[in-house]
Design brief:
By secondary structure, this protein is α/β, with parallel strands linked by helices. The protein has one domain: Inosine-uridine Nucleoside N-ribohydrolase, Chain A, CATH 3.90.245. Helix content is 37%, strand content 19%. Strands 4-3-2-1-5-6-7-12-10-11 form a ten-stranded mixed beta sheet. A two-stranded antiparallel sheet has the order 8-9. The protein binds beta-D-ribofuranose and calcium ion. Beta-D-ribofuranose binds next to helix 1 and helix 8.
Length: 323
């Protein structure tokens, strides 16, 4: 995004995350991006229960020098249910091949406060934020129903849903499956009040992949943080194949890259509806691309992604965070 004289404009982002390793990598991308201010971060249960997410965020903040405010939001989905990805991602959702955040951070951790509406303090400020949501949309659904918080949201980009198959179930992507009611509320409310909503779904993210060799390159930087990030990246790569021979898709970092550089994908207008009742399809994001003929568009959905460019952005950010 440029000003009339061609200068890159500063952008203000609010992050909402369930703090697995791919969330961490996405945050590091924004931290090391030019002309981006992280206004704050809110946490929600998802990859792991909220206390675990909270501890990971506190450790990451200490490790990587995060100075922005962090608050803890929803500990369960709007309907009270709790689904995690711990069986896949590990107890702390950061399955490592060696070092974990807790092995590296030895300082006392900052307290992370609870806040039902983490954007409430922003409502006082004249500046709006672009929201990048990297987990289930429970927090955001609450804020969207609170006009004072909502009015400071300039746009929402969400890593979640899919215009193809799911991962948590055959039909549903994990973030959508954990709280389908929240996703439906956010998409509908955003359309109602005119907040642009972008969905970076599984099908977009699966085009971008990392490999064991990427972890080895990171380790070669030679610092303790490089060793930590290399172990976390290798642990992540080994999720689908413990031998580490197969590549692994990067989800939240792809959404961060497309937020930073929207031109790295093709955005297609669509009417996105979230399946709330299907026995086999609950959490499915049904994308009607035949707009406006069949329905009114309420979202833009990421399509073909420039894999080389996004991969380079992810790996450059991990390298920058390693020094
Ligand atoms: C999404 O689910 C989580 O496990 C990841 O952090 C990502 O946000 C991918 O389906
Ligand atoms: Ca996530």
């Amino acid at each position: 995004m440029s000003s009339p004289n061609g200068q890159r404009l500063r952008r203000r982002v609010w992050l909402d995350t369930d703090m697995g390793f791919d969330d961490l990598a996405a945050v590091l991308m924004l931290q090391h991006a030019a002309n981006v201010e992280i206004a704050g971060m809110s946490l929600c249960a998802g990859n792991a229960p909220l206390p675990v997410v909270r501890r990971s965020a506190a450790l990451a903040a200490a490790c990587f020098g995060w100075a922005f405010p962090i608050t803890a939001g929803a500990g369960a989905a709007l309907n009270g249910s709790s689904v995690t990805a711990q069986s896949v991602l590990g107890e702390d959702a950061m399955r490592s091949a060696g070092l974990g955040l807790g092995d590296v951070v030895k300082t006392e951790l900052a307290e992370i406060a609870d806040a039902e509406f983490p954007l409430a303090e922003l409502a006082e400020s004249a500046e709006s934020v672009e929201v990048l949501a990297l987990g289930p949309l429970t927090n955001l659904a609450r804020w969207m129903q609170a006009p004072a918080s909502r009015q400071r949201i300039a746009s929402i980009t969400w890593m979640g849903g899919s215009a193809g198959p799911g991962n948590h179930t055959a039909a549903a992507e994990f973030n959508a499956f954990v709280d389908p009611e929240a996703a439906q509320i956010v998409i509908a409310e955003a359309a109602k009040v005119g907040i642009p909503f972008k969905m970076v779904g599984l099908d977009a993210c699966r085009q971008v992949r990392v490999r064991a060799a990427d972890a080895a390159n990171l380790r070669a930087i030679g610092t303790q943080k490089a060793a930590l990030l290399a172990d976390l990246l290798l642990g992540y790569v080994r999720i689908p194949d413990p031998s580490g021979q197969s590549p692994m898709s990067v989800y939240d970092p792809t959404a961060a890259a497309l937020w930073l550089q929207p031109e790295l994908t093709t955005w297609r207008p669509a009417c996105v509806d979230v399946e709330l009742v299907g026995h086999h399809t609950r959490g499915m994001t049904v994308c009607e691309f035949r707009v406006p003929r069949k329905a009114q568009a309420n979202a833009e959905v990421a399509g073909a992604v420039d894999e080389a460019a996004v991969r380079a952005m992810v790996l450059a950010a991990l390298a920058a965070a390693s020094s």
